[in-house]
Design brief:
Layout lengths: L1 H14 L6 H7 L1 H17 L3 H15 L2 E2 L4 E2 L4 E2 L6 E2 L4 E2 L4 E2 L4 E3 L11 E2 L4 E2 L4 E3 L3 E2 L4 E2 L4 E2 L8 E3 L4 E2 L5 H14 L13 H29 L12 E2 L6 H10 L8 E2 L1
Parallel strand pairs: 1-4, 2-5, 3-6, 4-7, 5-8, 6-9, 7-10, 8-11, 9-12, 10-13, 12-14
Antiparallel strand pairs: 14-15, 16-17
Helix pairs in contact: 3-4, 5-6
């Protein structure tokens, strides 16, 4: 229990940049309070003290605004951010390293006994106001967008948005890593941009990153061929980029807040 508590506290610092110190987290985070109450209530539930477990979960709902049935199964490093209005049903199963935001419901679609609530894999994130309903499985590393309503199985690593929930195009981890490398190379700040987003601008930038990677590969191939023929013109380093557009947004804001002028051109290696 103590080890789990330490992990639950540590994951708050990992996923909430507003967390400042352990005392603040322990005393002011209702999501942490709710998971502590749940772990005690779940232990009571498993030991056969059903009424006492339900009473404790009801008290927890009054104090935190978060309702977790003591019969639910929740893994390690579970984090509820903000938390008000979160409902987790009796037969819900949640893997390790999952995150829920306020207004999330892991509910059922039937009054029949047995498994009637969702199963979340590891490292699943469910956005604010989303409803995941029925005995369905949400695959590892999946993302459920805010206010989505999901009633069907969700495979691993995808993002689900809308009502009813639909899967947006999945990009491989290799593609994402390559784009981050290209962005770092040109000094572009790609904060908050993913290929899963339906934003056409984000999608265009992702396609541009892919095109730049393809061009780099062709240039490298041509330079290798020329080098074998005795031409060493490609041995020289590429010229440095000097474009104001490559100054990251965070750097601009920091300089503006300090009263410094942002230079018209910034060299990027």
């Amino acid at each position: 229990m103590i080890k789990q508590l330490r992990e639950d506290i540590a994951c708050v610092f990992e996923r909430d940049p507003a967390a400042r110190n352990t005392f603040e987290v322990v005393t002011t985070y209702p999501g942490l309070h709710a998971i502590i109450h749940y772990r005690i209530a779940h232990w009571l539930w498993c030991k056969g003290f059903k009424w006492l477990a339900r009473w404790l979960s009801t008290m927890s709902r009054w104090f935190t605004g978060i309702e977790i049935h003591p019969g639910a199964t929740i893994g390690r490093r579970f984090f509820i951010d903000h938390g008000m209005g979160v409902v987790i049903g009796e037969t819900a199963e949640i893997g390790d390293d999952c995150t829920l935001y306020h207004g999330v419901t892991l509910g059922g679609t039937s009054w029949n006994k047995g498994k009637r609530h969702p199963t979340l894999g590891n490292s699943v994130v469910v956005g604010a106001g989303a409803k995941v309903l029925g005995p369905i499985t949400i695959g590892d590393h999946a993302r459920v967008g805010s206010n989505a309503v999901v009633t069907k199985e969700v495979p691993e690593g995808v993002t689900v948005i809308g009502i009813p929930g639909r899967i947006v195009r999945k990009s491989s981890t290799q593609d994402e890593d390559r784009r981050r490398e290209i962005a770092a190379k040109i000094g572009f700040d790609a904060y908050g941009m993913t290929d899963d987003m339906p934003d056409p601008i984000a999608r265009s930038i992702s396609n541009l990153m892919d095109h730049m990677h393809a061009v780099d590969r062709k240039i490298e191939s041509m330079c290798t061929a020329l080098h074998k023929l005795g031409d060493h013109s490609c041995d020289d380093a590429l010229p440095e980029l000097e474009q104001e557009a490559f100054v990251s947004l965070s750097e601009r804001e920091a300089k503006a807040a300090a009263g410094d002028d942002v230079p018209l051109s910034t060299k990027v290696d």
